[in-house]
Amino acid sequence: MLLPGSVRARPVIGRSQADQGVTPLSPLTYRQRFQPLPQPLGAPPYHVDLETMVPGISARAAKHKRMVFHAVGDTGGISHPDYQRAVAASMKTDLRGAALHRPEFFFHLGDIVYYNGEQLQYYSQFYDPYDHYDAPIIGIAGNHDGDPVDASQTSLDGWVAYFMTAVPHVDPVSRDAPRVTLSLPNVYFALDCPFVRIVGMYTNVPEGGSVDSIQQQWLANELATAPTNKALVVAMHHPIYSFDDHHSGSANIAKVLQQAVNDSRRVPNLVLAGHVHNYQRIERTLTAKKTVPFIVAGSGGYYHLHGMNSPVGTTDPNTGATLVAGDAKRHSYLTIEVTATHLTGRMTPIAKDGTPAPTADSFTYPTAAITLPAGTNVTL
Predict the structure, then answer these.
(1) What global pTM score does this model have?
(2) What angle do CA 287, 288, 294 make, to 5 degrees?
(3) Which residues in 26-63 are b (16+ Cβ under 10 Å) and which e?
(4) How would you classify the pairing of strands 270-273 and 231-235?
């Protein structure tokens, strides 16, 4: 029964996932329904070689013995675009840094355009803010990118018009901030890079995310066949863990990754997500005492930041997830550096005056392949 004036319930304090069983159906959350996916451009397994978009990346990575990229989500600067522009300005400055640590591309974690991924909003929320960001912007879609405003719109039509065009071209929508479109093979894909493979999922529109059986099978195959001499990063929009007071983590997407890990016997070295509008680094100790970071980086420009339900140091007794770093007061972005042995990252916060502040969180994790011992499974 709906009570007059009622709203969605807030996440439970000290918990990293919204539910531990069946997600309750409610008109307050059910408006965002699972949306059909666009037809793929290519054939499975939907692999993309970074060299095709960043010529010379393999040679540079071999020379510098590392590869660097940006990552963040939830950038759409609707209502208050100054936040997005400040983050983008700092990221552009990074591209003018020393070659050894210069990012080669930006991996977007979804929610590019608010509120419904409209193609006509791509100029103000995507093309113009990243004008002169002279590196490719690759990424996955978020729930707002795929949620049609009404029956006149097809899910992901704006996203497809930039990320999934059969023939790369300059979209007229970009006006005085031209950028050549991409030809990603599908809404979910694997990006092959020096030192790392990034497996990008599409967790669709519903609150808590949703993945069909075809993508589930694809994900398990990607983990099973991922090279063991590279780091394995899984990127998704809806986070598995989050100690925020607005969305929380998704038990549903946790089950998706859990099944893929148990089927494939391969554990990611890093899991990236957005959706929650803040920064969190969460750790889980999984098989053989291996620590896996689950990072929420959804503070890329959308004006409304989400608060936290727990302080740093909190461990969820249900999931075992521990919040080791967080910032819910400032917009920010990640710079990730991958070598043959380690994956290193730093979070750059943006001060209230729009200038970069000192690094608020940094981390280093080994890139050695993590596999499940015989007879064991993980629970996320």
Answers:
(1) 0.96
(2) 45
(3) eeeeeebeebebbeebeeeebbbebeebbeebeebbee
(4) parallel
Q: Which helix (H) or strand (E) holds 88?
A: helix 82-94
Instruction: Output the DSSP codes for 51-84.
Output: GGTSTTHHHHHHHHT-EEEEEE------S-THHH
pLDDT tens per residue across span 150-198: 999 999 999 999 999 999 999 999 999 999 999 999 999 999 999 999 9
CB-CB neighbours of 328 under 10 Å: 19
Helix, coil or strand: residue 215: helix
Rounded CA-CA distance 71/68 in Å is: 10
Separation CA 72–CA 103 (nearest Å): 13
* Tens digits of residue pLDDT in 306-340: 999 999 999 999 999 999 999 999 999 999 999 99
- Span 240-256, average pLDDT: 96
Per-residue confidence (pLDDT) for residue 19, from 0 to 100: 73
Is the dihedral angle over the CA atoms 48, 253, 286, 300 positive or is it negative?
positive
Spatial CA neighbour of 276 closest among 313, 253, 305: 305
pLDDT of residue 23: 60
Report the candidate in 47, 235, 41 with the shortest Cα–Cα distance to residue 141.
235
- Alpha-carbon distances, residue 147 vs 60, 72, 216, 327 (angstroms): 39, 20, 21, 28
The amino acid present at 343, given as its one-letter code, is L
Which helix (H) or strand (E) covers residue 106, if one does? strand 106-108
